[in-house]
Request: fold
Amino acid sequence: MVGGLIVIVWDNLGTHRSARMRRHLPARDWLTVFYLPPYTPELNPVESVWSHLKRSLANLAKHTIDQLMRLIKTSLKRIQHRHALLNGLLAHTHRPL
Reply:
């Protein structure tokens, strides 16, 4: 059992906003749910990372899922080690670190 209050920040996935969820949430006074606005990439730093990754893969053709997965993993590792790039992507959110 959790010994305190819980706060959840959810996107607008259908199950998060479903009638079933709306029935169950009010009975849990220990739970507070905040919903992100419909599309807010500036509040979610990973959106910038995915955007950068997709641009880097745009002109590359792979023949199998395994090849594509290797390429994605390699690209993410490169991003991980480029601190200036990461700082720039985070700065795009205008959120304090």
Remarks:
- The mean pLDDT is 84.
